[in-house]
Amino acid sequence: MNGLYAATLAQLEQRLGPVSGEGPLGQDATLARDEGEAFPAEALTALRAHGVPDLLVPASEGGQFVSFEGALAVGLTLARRDPSVALSQGMLCWLWLAWMVGSPGQRERARALLQGTAAPCFAASEANHGADLLATETLALSRPEGWEVTGEKWPIGRASHAAFAFVLARTRPAPGPRALSWFLVELDQPTVVRLPKVRTVGLRASDLSGLRFARAAASPVGEEGQGLELTLKIFQLTRPLMAGLGLGTGDRALRVATRFALERELYRASAASLPAVRRLLVGAWLRLLAAEILLLSGVRALHGAPGQASLSSPLAKAIAPALVEQAIRSATTVLGARAFMREGPAAIFQKMARDHAAVGLIDGSEPVCLHALAAELPQVFTANAGSGDLLRTRFSLEEPVPAFAPASLGLTARGVDDVTAELPPGLLPHWSALRQGGSEALRGPARLETARRYGLLHAAACCFHFERFNPGLALCRAGVPALAGQFLMEPEALPETACREIFDLLAARVEGGHLLSVTDVSTGPASETALAG
After folding, report:
1. How does DSSP assign 57-75, residue by residue?
2. pTM (2 decimals)?
3. Which CATH number fits domain 121-225: 3.40.50.970, 3.40.50.11270, 3.40.50.2000, 2.40.110.10?
4. CA torsion sign, 151 to 153 to 159 to 164?
5. What are the pLDDT digits (tens) for 327-371?
6. Architecture, CATH, for domain 3-113
7. Which residues belong to CATH 1.10.540.10 in the chain?
8. Class of domain 231-375+421-512
9. Going by C-beta distance under 8 Å and a sequence separation of 6 or more, which residues neighbour residue 382?
């Protein structure tokens, strides 16, 4: 079954049933929630009954978590059904803050939370400062009776439906890297006000709101002054997982467009017989596969190369959602008017497209993540100290990863990127061209574009490494991951013969009821209804 990732995907697809089925996780319920902007409480209860939350919780805390690739599989499977449900369930990942540095009492509080469907919320951003955490105004003061927090956090995911919040607050008057600390605040206090839900374009069923604190009792999480460091480290865990929701939106959107092309008759033939249509769909699938491989490398690095996560996690968050966005754009072109219909058999497409647009903003937008990546690149460009020794651990799905060791996470990768330290010959010219700009390319307006180009090169290299270390996978035997890597760097160079062959593989996945994944996992009988109409 090619390891934990594929096994988790298969297990969840079997447990949760077809995406078009009945119940709170089926398509009708998903669309109704979206139209009504209703929090998915019933769906979360169903997930609890299926044991899904346990897959996100370490065994030491009473769960069944083995590695972050299992958590990535959870996000993909849930987002295929409803990204709002996937995001709401994914809020459990914030409990890693307690599991990494929390007191025994806080860890016990987290364990108690898991008995039901509740989750914490992560209260870091503020309306006036966004991602500028050093400008945080929320203040925590130590008094004889304990710590108190005063301030406002907005916008916050799941704030209206959380049992408690992790709150980032200033504990020193002067701003600086040691001026911030984390606190656990129970939300049933009279000193806490839950702000109204914000109406959004995508993820309508999610809870995006805020919190106002007026001397609310709080308990410190970790050491005083450790707030910024802990934030950067927790983002190393959550950024690739949140980006992974796009694998589900991309799967569903591309599946709808491909089925439409196969069924739609144009000029007395299937729309899929038109080379331009095939190329759009194949390009979309190659980008989706590249995003999945990049994210698999990123989450496996948390176990096998945690010291590089400060580079690999923001890179994955910046690049993977953008690749899926391009894939959905291609699928939109194929679907035409049906891409904008809120009813009918293709109605789920417009929801997936709207929801995915928000995925790139969660836990750091593309510019924020490219900025973090750019800070790592001067050392990588000067002398990449990486080696190929860890590539098998990062890419072979059949190779178990080491146990996650939070203490091994760092704040900088120190110029190490194993993925680009060993490049296939076809990518070397792109690496040389990227480095020609030298330090100038990492300063001024070109800085983020240089980081984006490096991210694409890294993603392309991941595709080649993945194919090398997974010879048993059907797509690897067909050479598809390497073609995906080439396509990222030179999309116009994909031969028409290869395009036809890859489209046949894509069509077989859609018609045979299989995930559009690098793995070969059945979703059960093909469940989407006819779309051509």
Report:
1. SBGGGTS-B--HHHHHHHH
2. 0.97
3. 2.40.110.10
4. negative
5. 999 999 999 999 999 999 999 999 999 999 999 999 999 999 999
6. Orthogonal Bundle (1.10)
7. 3-113
8. mainly alpha
9. 415
